[in-house]
Amino acid sequence: MKTTASDTATRRTISTTATCDAEAHTLDTKVVLTLDLHKAFVGDQETILKWLQNRHVVSTVCDYVKYFLTNHKAILMAVEAESEGFELGNKGTPQGSVLPAFLFNVGMLGLPSELEDIEGLQHSLRADDIILWVTGGSDNHMEEILP
């Protein structure tokens, strides 16, 4: 079973428990997989824009996001001193903005129905956490079900 995530911003935790069903005399493994997507949209701005376009987000929204993400400058201020403005580069989304939540929600739109199509897989979505679990079957069966 894989225990590393392809996205370094995603933390993945796997818990496995073997339990014995006394009535059926079987040994079933139970697996819980949690994905924490807390920094799913802290990345290259060009990648974020391509991602939106691939999801057929209307061009006016893409244009707004592009404008919002580009040409950001920061100024440091302390008491009566103020720095010159400096470029922030093309990584991430501005802190405190609603953009990361919007992008996350757009990204999650189709996920519940896709997860429901996987037989034997249970799921729960809470904020930026995805919890997947399988409650029975062999280890091989679980490896086939879990992503």
Automatic annotation (TrEMBL):
InterPro entries: RT_dom (IPR000477). It comes from the Eukaryota. Residues 1-147 form the Reverse transcriptase domain. Pfam families: RVT_1 (PF00078). This is Reverse transcriptase domain-containing protein.
